[in-house]
Amino acid sequence: MAVDVNWMQNSGDPSQNLDKTDIHVIYDGHQYVKYTSTQPTRAAYLKFSCSDDRSSSNSPTIVGEFSLSPADETGSEFSLDREDAPAWYLQWFSSQVLAYEKHTAGWCFWSWKTDLGDPRWDYRLGVQKGFIPKALGSISNTVCSGV
After folding, report:
1. Residue 126 to residue 94: CA distance in whole angstroms
2. CA distance linking residue 109 with residue 64, whole number of Å
3. Of the candidates 62, 66, 56, which has an alpha carbon nearest to the alpha carbon of residue 120?
4. Of 7, 40, 71, 120, whose CB is crowded by the most CB atoms within 10 A?
5. Do 82 and 76 form a contact (C-beta atoms < 8 A)?
6. Any idea what the Cα angle at residue 15 is, between residues 36 and 34, rounded to 5°?
7. In terms of pLDDT, which residue wins out, 23 or 64?
8. How far, rounded to the nearest angstrom, does the alpha carbon of residue 39 sit from its chain's CA centroid?
9. pTM, rounded to two decimals
10. Partners of 61 in beta bridges
11. By CB neighbour count within 10 A (0-12 exposed, 13-18 middle, 19+ buried), where does 130 fall?
12. In angstroms, rounded to a whole number, what is the distance separating the alpha carbons of residues 123 and 147?
C-alpha cells in the first residue's frame, strides 16, 4: 500500500520509485472534510462531498479513513442535539460513500468503535443514532440531487 499524493501534499509522488506496471499497489487516501479549506457549513460540506472526484488520483485508490466530524468550533449548525441531525448526517455520510464508491476501489470509516461517545467518529454508534444506514445498499443514488 502506498499513500496517495493527494493525501500527503508536498511530500512528493509516492509512485516515483515504483514500477508503473506493479499491480500489487493500492493508494490510500484519507479524506477528512474538516481538514480541507471547505467552509464549515452543512451546504458546503455536502457540495464538497457530492463533487469529490478522486478519479485523477493515483490508481487504484481507496479512501482508507473518513468521518462525519465537522471542523472544530463550528457552532450549532453541526450540533448533535439538533432535531434534524440524524437526517443531515445520514445524507452527508451517504454523499461521501457514493463519491468514494464511484471514484475509488473502496472506503473505510474511522473507526468501528471509539471511547469518544461521538457518532461522527464511531461507525457502530453512528448506525445506532441513525447517522449511518444499517443497510448500506439502502443509500439512495439521488442523495446529491439538488446539491
Report:
1. 12
2. 7
3. 66
4. 120
5. yes
6. 10
7. 64
8. 16
9. 0.87
10. 27
11. middle
12. 25
Q: Which residues contact 113 (CB under 8 A, 6 or more apart)?
A: 122, 123, 124, 125
CA distances from 49 to 16, 27, 57, 109 (A): 29, 19, 16, 15
Which grid cell is 68? 462525519
Could you tell me which residues come within 8 angstroms of residue 32 by beta carbon, excluding any fewer than 6 positions away?
65, 66, 67, 69
Backbone angles phi, psi at 140, to 5 degrees: -75, 135
Residue-wise pLDDT tens digits, 39-94: 999 999 999 999 998 776 677 888 989 999 999 877 789 999 999 999 999 999 99
Residue type, 14: P
